[in-house]
Design goal:
- The protein is mainly beta.
- The protein folds into 3 domains: 126 residues, Cupredoxins -  blue copper proteins (Immunoglobulin-like, Sandwich); 139 residues, Cupredoxins -  blue copper proteins (Immunoglobulin-like, Sandwich); 138 residues, Cupredoxins -  blue copper proteins (Immunoglobulin-like, Sandwich).
- Helices cover 6% and strands 39% of the residues.
- The chain has 4 helices and 33 strands.
- Strands 20, 22, 25, 27, 28, 29 and 31 form a 7-stranded mixed beta sheet that branches.
- Strand 27 and strand 28 form a beta hairpin.
Amino acid sequence: MPDDFIRRISRRALLSAGAGFVVTTAGRRASARANRDFRIAAAPARASLTGHDRRPTDVWAYNEAVPGPTLRVRQGEPVRIIVDNRLDQDTTVHWHGIRLPIGMDGVPGISQPPIRPGETFVYEFTPPDAGTFWYHPHANSLQQLGRGLAGPLIVEERAPIAVDRELLWTVMDWRLNPDAQIAAGFGNMMEAAMSGRIGNTVTLNGVVATDAPVRAGERVRIRLVNAALARIAALRFEGHRPVIIAIDGQPCDPHEPADGRLLLGPATRIDILLDMQGEPGRRYRVVDDFYDGLDYWLVHLAYDKAAPTRAHPPAMLSLPRNPLPEPDLKAAERRELVLQGGMMGGGGMRAMGGMTGMGRAAWAINGTSMTGDGHAGMAPVATLGLGRSCVLTLRNETAWWHPMHLHGHSFRVLRRNGAAVPHRVWADTVLLAPRETVDVAFVADNPGDWMLHCHVTDHMAAGLMTILRIGDGGSHKR
């Protein structure tokens, strides 16, 4: 069964995630101040993932930091980011979740030429939406993301919201050998046809964490980013009641998560409000219990001994909505995309047809596999009229979970297995359970050839990827 496979590769990991190295997760690696000009370099580096008294890990990093520097920008203001490639292979940067022009999207061969070793590329865009986003490569993604190339991008609201503090938690998942070095084996086809490359060490803001200092009575906004290759997280805040205020950067109706668990597939971001109602001096675990029998604690909320800052939590607040166009469901074009393949999908891995690009295929969308990271000449699965509303039905016919990500757009999540999704949820990455069907809707107002793919990176590289053409499509358009 799928859980058995995950158990075999993950047990050591989840023990090491709670290994007990002391580090604060609050305010670690201060971000660049809000600005319009940044420069980041992708290069080999070393990082103390498992503690400063342990051997550092050889990684690939932006500006020698894992995760990369937090880029803070302002909603509606132009941004210019210079990217230097100091790797020995091509790279790009994809600004995940940002609605930007196709020429800035970072997909080699479709959006831009790859950034060759020693070369530089300048990304320029104006983010229309405030929220929590992130950046990562879209070239040799398995190794480049799996070796550490990822960083948060925060688009600040025009007016700050009323919280006492803000925390940014970037979760990354690593497969390390006993010497604390990244294990070989990227692109294993057996893993690719199952859950993907799940690691054995989980870090929070680049370290195996223990304590996040908090004070009773305060209200904290926590921005959560799942930057893992494949690991799905389901976080429970023991003794606390998190309230979701945004998903994938897009505000929603404030609500507590079902069963008190925050479900984060790879690439998902969730913003929560957390009222610190615990007892001064106590520690409360944040537990990830997604995989059966493999619960572990990610971090402790460590309360100061001081008296509470307030007796009762303040009134609940909502984030201001972003300027997303509302789809016209009655007049919408409708498309169905069927996710197929993988192990245990009816008697083992089926051969996939219609493969384009390089590499072997284990997955398909509507019978066609597109492997790798994106390349010129990828035929679209559908062409949508510019400015038209579209309802996409995503039907998962496989035995595995798939976080499906659409570039260049955010979509309204309408229904799961026919049941309406509450709380006016918008997203750019939607997690589909095995055999689940999800309906999403958006306005196709951003012209270009836009990727739609699974963000379990092995799944994408092994065929679970396609193109939606909006307008006349085309490549390298600014």
